[in-house]
């Protein structure tokens, strides 16, 4: 087999150790001016290969930490931006089978299997939703919303119902509630409606099994505003429920009140 030698002009030149940072014209690879000047050989020329660079574990950890911190920041920024979503307008939902209608934000999504007759939720603020509850036709015979008493009496019943639903078996859980307002109105359909607003706060211990009181730090889990509209038709009691965090209510109050005002109960034709 013929042995091929590589011309010195094609080999990389190593700088002198005495002055590693200085280079001369000889430090660069010299290429022939024309391809015809290249030597021919029956075998290919093998140039020295550069060893792959090894990435240390510390470098990998730093890179992973940078990616993770960027992700967390993006999530926090997204969550903060969720509370500043622009108004998208309202869309009407009509249930002619059960006999009611109302308006809701266009970008809210319907959630099935939530236990209510209908349930919509804000895709960004998950604590914000709207639903409709209807009394059982076999166990109710309402003639008017006044069957619940005065608006204030109806408001107390609504608040009691909320607290019953939010009862918790966890140790150290405490609820604070207040009846904010009650009112009545006659809508353009000639029917009487009651409107109720309540606030409920939930508190819990961070370590409910701790023996010493100083180890059981109480923290607030959530603070919500609940708005209900009550109406009667078809011998049934209808309740529109709106739930929103208190910190969001001030920003969206006008739209939420439009939703409350839009609720109607309708006669079902058999």
TrEMBL record:
Chain ranges of the PsbP C-terminal domain: 89-265
GO CC entries: extrinsic component of membrane; photosystem II oxygen evolving complex
Pfam family, one: PsbP
Record-given protein name: PsbP C-terminal domain-containing protein
Organism: Kalanchoe fedtschenkoi (Lavender scallops)
Lineage: Eukaryota, Viridiplantae, Streptophyta, Embryophyta, Tracheophyta
NCBIfam families (alphabetical): PSII_PsbP
Any one biological process term the GO annotation gives: photosynthesis
Molecular function GO terms recorded: calcium ion binding
Superkingdom of the source species: Eukaryota
